[in-house]
Hints:
It is a single chain. The protein is mostly helical. The protein has two domains: about 1-120, no CATH class; about 140-375, hpI Integrase, Chain A (Orthogonal Bundle), CATH 1.10.443. The chain has 16 helices and three strands. The chain has helices at about 1-5, 15-25, 35-45, 85-100, 140-145, 150, 175-185, 190, 240-245, 245-255, 285-300, 320-325, 335-340, 350, 355-360, 360-375; strands spanning about 200, 205-210, 235. Strands 1-2-3 form a three-stranded antiparallel beta sheet. A hairpin with a 6-residue loop joins strand 1 (about 200) and strand 2. Helix 5 packs across helix 11 and helix 7 runs parallel beside helix 12 (about 320-325). This is Integrase.
Amino acid sequence: MVVDQFNYAPDNGQRRAVFERFAWITGDKLLHHYEPADIQNYVRKMAAIPATYRFGQLGKTGLMAKTFNEAMFDVPTDETRRSKRTINRDLSILDKASQVLAKDAWLPRYGTGMVMNFLAEWRKVPNDPADPKRMPWTPSHLKALYSLAVWQGGGGSTRRLKPDSRPRIYQDAAYWLPLFGTYMGVSREEGAGFDVVDFNFECEVPYVLICANLTRSKDGKTKAGLKRPSRHRVMPIHPELLRLGVEDYVKAIAAEGYDMIFPELYVDAAVSRERGKKAPAKGGRRFYAIAWCYLMDATHGLRPLPATRCGKKADFHSQRTYSNSVLADPDVSESIIADHMGHARSGTGNRNYLRRALTLGEVQELKERLEVMVRHMPIVTAHVERTPVKLLHINKRSRVGSAPGRNAKLKFCQ
Length: 414
């Protein structure tokens, strides 16, 4: 009902997890037995549970297979304390359910208003310039990333981060997706979900279209993948990506007959699934599990990653912070940065009247944005040589394994 009323994309599991967690912590009561005190109870108990715990499914698996008991949890420390932003996210999701239930189970008996007002418990989170929510990558950290064997030459599948007597460089999501983050500022899911047809190299300014498509569809029928309408954008392709051979890679994938440029992140043939086991994640989540956590860990071993006070290290999304930061020169207009990042424009003029691409033409607008990108984005891959496209078997792609002397699965970024 929430999906239908608010025109949301189908749930990826997050909303259901929040609903189940609220029910578990508050006693899993009949809907008409809930009262505002349950909201306060939920917020208090979530704040008292360390963020390191995983809950499972209500009445089926993990901690939620049992009745809730505060005694099963340790006291949170400064490093494990749950963020107020996380609790606010839960309240926002629960508020949407409350708006639906306000027509039935949570309909006020007298007068108007809401029986269950989740947003009344929303906590304001002030921004601290000295301790940002997310630390950006720096050029020196990115150079360390691209000094790894994935881009310099390593072993075969699951040994891509290790030196080898016959060093090889394979191209797939492990090779290209970090580069897209660095030179395009795309999010992990945006970059993981590109289709072959999204790329256009046969034009004056080669570009990639960031748009909803069937690759990132939730139901296989409806195009999806945009977090918000402003994320739909045309991105000029940085010359460094062209130098490294992105056009050859896209053509090689097209020759294989795939629609998506990183088929190993989506197709069933790329994974083995045991009988009775949950289907493996797709898209950016699969990329994180089989490649990105190892790449981050290996980079951290060379040069410790930037981290917030609570210990949150720079991750893939931190590349968007990096892109926004390097473009934020005084001579670069806010509208250009907004168009590059896929942010909603601020101000009535920018929102309603700035139509530069329609006025001067798409090519002129792309040239201007590309010139800004080239002028302000540091080249962090000058030491990476262009190599012929070499593809692994589909079920071996992007599985890089740990770097020498490290075990990213057990001791991630330690």
